[in-house]
Write a structure and sequence with these properties.
- Helices cover 3% and strands 50% of the residues.
- It is mainly beta.
- The longest helix has 4 residues, at 81-84.
- The protein has one helix at 81-84, and strands spanning 6-12, 26-32, 36-42, 47-52, 61-68, 73-80, 94-100, 103-107, 114-118.
- A hairpin with a 3-residue loop joins strand 2 and strand 3.
- The radius of gyration is 14 Å and the shape is globular.
- Belongs to the plant self-incompatibility (S1) protein family.
- It comes from Hibiscus trionum (Flower of an hour).
- This is S-protein homolog.
- It is found in: Secreted.
Length: 119
């Protein structure tokens, strides 16, 4: 488990707010116990990806605050070692998240999606 390189994908699947896709519609702020990762401004269809390994104690946690420019905000855990280390191994060691107008969806196979965190 400790040597596996996991991949987190978060895609902005929110609707366009303007005809041009040049305005960020989603802002993500990521934190782990050890790191405060920068604020990410995402345009529609942008995919934010990063890789990591589970720590020795198996307590790895990556949390996000998602803010949609339509005024909605939601905290979600993109990776919790105790919850995700096995379920995310099914599809290339990936946890896949899709931010949509009704919530934040999870998939571990890129075809079946569950609205895990409604707005």
């Amino acid at each position: 488990m400790l040597l596996i390189n996991y991949h987190i994908h978060i895609t902005n699947d929110l609707p366009l707010l303007s005809p041009a896709n040049d305005v960020p519609t989603l802002y993500l702020h990521c934190k782990s116990k050890d790191d405060d990762i920068d604020l990410k401004a995402m345009r529609v269809w942008d995919d934010y990806t990063w890789n990591f390994k589970v720590n020795v104690l198996r307590t790895t946690l990556f949390s996000y605050n998602a803010r949609w420019t339509k005024g909605k905000q939601r905290h979600f855990d993109a990776f919790v070692a105790s919850r995700d280390k096995e379920r995310c191994q099914k599809y290339h060691n990936s946890c896949i998240w899709s931010v949509r107008s009704d919530g934040i969806y999870f998939s571990n196979n890129n075809s079946t999606w569950t609205n895990t965190y409604p707005w």
